[in-house]
Design goal:
Elements: E1 2-7, E2 10-11, E3 17-21, E4 24-28, E5 36-44, E6 48-58, H1 84-101, E7 125-131, E8 134-138, E9 145-147, H2 156-167, E10 174-179, H3 192-205, E11 210-216, E12 231-238, H4 241-248, E13 255-259, H5 262-267, H6 269-272, E14 281-285, H7 294-303, E15 307-312, H8 315-325, E16 329-337, E17 347-354
């Protein structure tokens, strides 16, 4: 292995700094653009290399002291060495860049990023792993565990649950989800304040006096139930039958929730809602990180709802999908939300309208 001095030029999605050596990209974790660093090259490929930080020779003014004693070893956080305002700027730029590079989008109508009110102590849920007496998280780039006594980005209630787990005389190997409250065991966002901001953003993007909302990947109805007053009818679709059962509880007469394969469900929308007007229809999609399937993308273009709102946890698959959806839609706005401060993750909402030739 060899040690070289490099100038960090950018921060890639995922959190690693990007430098160049003889034209080849070199990725270095825990660095900031503008810094000069000494690194050890640990993996070298034909197109790129990976390196470990040895020393920061010229430090960025945005560098701060991490609050977590496990930072740099635990694989959960990527940005605790960067001040929060600069984290926001990096995330906004990453979303714009990936939409340009993968989505081939030009003149992207980017809105300001919505920050989290809390930089630490915001997570309402974590999954702890136990193996051979070690209770904690996976190490960075590894399947080995690091013992964790407290997680600074988690709420006090979650850390109390962690302390109680650690206090047990013998904990069986496995995975343990620790929660701040006894909510239904279905998917929900782990940052309540930003989740509420996300819901309010979606609400503001939807016009009043609509006929039909189709909420795909609806979960327990987080968006659908917040938007009821704007629609005559709401149809929620999700593969998770437990989430659908939760959504059906206390549902009004205007709500229908259907469990099953979403590709198949989209093919049945004509029989489920045969008389809907496309110009008064909103489609909301909130897929997993893999994004929309090719079948779903084609079905959405064929359906041609007047309004399409895409909530994404993966800017790369969002960019891919928006590129395909441009066949029938125009992007009105893109809004990043920093749902998980200190980590490499980011939430994005894209607001689209069907091109006039597609709406009847």
């Amino acid at each position: 292995m060899r040690i070289v001095d490099l100038k960090i030029a950018d921060i890639a999605f995922g959190g690693k700094g990007v430098a160049r050596e003889n034209g080849k990209a070199v990725f270095v974790a825990y660095t900031i653009e503008g810094e000069t660093v000494s690194v050890e090259i640990v993996r070298e490929k034909k197109q790129f290399a990976e390196a470990e930080l040895v020393d920061v020779k010229e430090s960025s003014p945005h560098r701060v002291t991490p609050e977590c004693p496990y930072f740099g070893r635990c694989g959960g956080c990527a940005y605790q060495h960067i001040d929060y305002e600069h984290q926001l700027a990096i995330k906004w730029r990453q979303v714009r860049d990936v939409l340009q590079r993968i989505g081939k989008l030009k003149d992207i109508p980017m809105r300001p990023i919505i920050p989290s009110p809390k930089q630490y102590g915001y997570r309402s849920r974590i999954t702890i792993h136990v193996q051979d007496g070690v209770i904690g998280f996976f190490r960075r780039d590894s399947h080995r565990l690091i013992d964790i006594e407290r997680c600074p980005i988690s709420r006090d209630e979650v850390n109390r649950a962690l302390a109680e787990l650690r206090a047990q005389p013998q904990v069986s190997d496995g995975h343990y989800t620790l929660r701040a409250s006894s909510r239904p065991r279905v998917f929900s966002q782990t940052n309540d304040a930003v989740a509420n901001a996300l819901r309010d953003l979606v609400d503001n993007l939807v016009a009043p006096d609509q006929q039909l909302l189709i909420d795909a990947y609806c979960g327990a109805g987080f968006f659908a139930k917040a938007l009821l007053d704007k629609f005559e009818r709401v149809i929620g679709l999700d593969w998770d039958r437990f989430a659908i059962e939760a959504a059906r509880q206390n549902a009004t007469a205007k709500e229908s929730y259907i469990a099953g394969d979403l590709d198949l469900a989209f093919g049945r929308l004509g029989s489920i809602a045969p008389t809907f007007e496309r110009k008064r229809t909103t489609l909301l999609v909130d897929p997993p990180a893999a994004g929309l399937s090719a079948t779903m993308r084609k079905a959405i273009v064929d359906l041609a709802p007047a309004t399409l709102i895409y909530v994404s946890c993966n800017p790369a698959t969002l960019a891919r999908d928006l590129h395909e959806l441009q066949e029938g839609f125009t992007v009105e706005s893109v809004t990043p939300l920093y749902m998980f401060p200190q980590t490499a993750e980011i939430e994005v909402v894209a607001h689209m309208r069907a091109t006039s030739s597609f709406v009847s």
